[in-house]
Amino acid sequence: MSLLEIKNLQVSVEDDRQILRGVDLTVNPGEVHAIMGPNGSGKSTLAHVLSGKDGYEVTGGEVLLDGADLLAMEPDERAAAGLFLAFQYPMEIPGVATMTFLRTAMNAQRKKRGEAELSTPEFMKRVREEAAKLSIDPEMLRRPVNVGFSGGEKKRNEVLQMALLQPKLAVLDETDSGLDIDALKIAAEGVNRLRSPERGMIVITHYQRLLDHIVPDIVHVFFNGRIVRTGGKELAHELEAKGYADYEQEVAA
Ligand code: ADP
Ligand code: MG
Ligand code: MG
User: Fold this and answer.
1) Which residue segment(s) compose the domain that 155 sits in?
2) What is the DSSP string of 82-140?
3) Which residues, judged by CB distance below 6 Å to any ligand atom, belong to the binding site of ligand 1?
4) What are 165-195's pLDDT values in tens digits?
5) What CATH number corresponds to the domain at position 28?
6) pTM
7) Which residues surround ligand 2, an ion (CB under 5 A)?
8) Whose CA is nearest to atom 21 of ligand 1?
9) Number of structural domains found in the chain
């Protein structure tokens, strides 16, 4: 069975403006997909709809995660079902230590799955192991979540969260500009370390450069609210060279 199946997904925002116009995408276990497309084409909207964020109206189509109806689930149920979303600008949570946040996220996922909470020593052991792999200073874990974190620290924190939650499907929206080279490399290393035959990943990016570090199995061109072309990793290089002009002409015609 496919890990993720998006079929003819159509989404509108306020004032009935349609943003997604029939997205079709299938991700199998073990695959890393890249979605590339111009600014404003709806890439982040797709990520937000998968996460269950408010403010989007699904007007058609369906999304199945491991065969289950993802759109019928609450955001916490989606996480428990194995979905992880990472956004470029993660939320700051003043007053909540990063360590506490990670533990809460892990235990919430375990509880939804009917698993026992991790004991304090078990939790500490796992966090220390994963943090060390990411060169995270333990001091960072005592600070409130993302408050005053540098771009690189925020990215490390997200990758740490992903490593601890061990999602079935990870979606990373590395949107637009502002992702510095350090953050980009951290994101890439995090994704590469978590590649596995059971896990699927979708990396949404503007940057061909990111895909030099994360070599995708499959590349999709996203244009005007849908996937208009699918190919191998060479497609990313073609886009870097030619841009989206061909697609603009097709849409205009
Ligand atoms: P991308 O990530 O490809 O740059 P987005 O998904 O961010 O594109 O945006 C696609 C279009 O949808 C843009 O025109 C944007 O202004 C609009 N849009 C996205 N989210 C909302 C929202 N919550 N309300 C209104 N318009 C939105
Ligand atoms: Mg954008
Ligand atoms: Mg975006």
Assistant:
1) 4-252
2) TEEEEESSPPPEEEEEHHHHHHHHHHHHHHHTTPPPPPHHHHHHHHHHHHHHTT--GGG
3) 13-14, 19, 37, 39-45, 55, 175
4) 999 999 999 865 566 787 788 888 888 999 9
5) 3.40.50.300
6) 0.93
7) 39, 176
8) 13
9) 1
